Each structure stands twice: as structure tokens, then as C-alpha cells.
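Repro:
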Amino acid sequence: SVSALLAHPPAPQQWAVKDFAPLGAVTMLAAPGGQGKSLLLLHLATHGALGLAWGPFRFDTAVKTLYLSYEDGLRQIYDRLTDIRQDLEEQHGTLYDVRGALDANVLAYRVEDPGTWLFLLKPDRFTPAERSARVDWVVGLVRHAKIKLLVLDPMVYTHQVPENDIADM
């Protein structure tokens, strides 16, 4: 009943990124290509590693992030992370061990062969979608490393399912 619910409120919402990405839920950031989604997510991962606010994004504590890039090459990821790290060291290097926090709290991978990193498989349109073994591997890593924010960039490369098929998605 409503009165029972109001008498016993649920536990407060926990957040990976305050008021943006709740723990245990999916948050999707969508925009046309080339708009800066990947760069924004790398900023969130690096600032979250230190527990530092970035623009409107806030963190209650340092957040461990697993960032899987299906699109950007190693050079682009390296250049972006180097620029962000240098900015963080210039702004906060006297107060924080920036490199240590990034090493401890950000795992970034370049997916070399997206075909081996699919999470949902659908060989044909009549077969139900199935989880791949990669899902169990990532879930195990997330649990073992205590990851709070998982970034799949972009998600479209993680499956073989038509995105307009509501049942499979």
C-alpha cells in the first residue's frame, strides 16, 4: 500500500556519478558521432578516479571505472588521457597523487577485435539473442576489481541485435 511505502522509505539511491549514473542501472549517453561523447566519458573516468567534480558531474568518493573503447585507436586514447592527466596534475597535483589515482581507479582497454567482444549474439533474425561468454568475463572483472562505472564506447558495437527490436534489446 502507499501508506506502507511512505512509512518505510527505500534506501537512498547510490550513484557512480551523482544525479547522472546510478549504481546498478544503465545510463545511456547518446548523440551523433563526433560530438564528444568519448572525451566526456574519459573526463568522467579520470575525474571520478580522484573523486573530483567536473562541470555538473559530482562524485561522492573516488570511483573505479572500466572503459572499453570499440572505436578509438590507441593513439587517440593515449593522447586524450595524456592531456586530461596533465590538466589534472596542473590543477590538483599538489593535493592529489593524480597518476596513482588514475592507475588505481581507471582500467582502459582498446577492443582490438570487436567480434570477440560481443555481449549479445544473434546469428539470425529468428533466433533469440543470447549472452556471450564475454558477459561473464566482464561481470567477473567488475566484481573482482570493484568497478562502479562501466563504459562501453560505443555500445552499438557490443551486440548483433537490431536496435529497434525491443524484445531482444
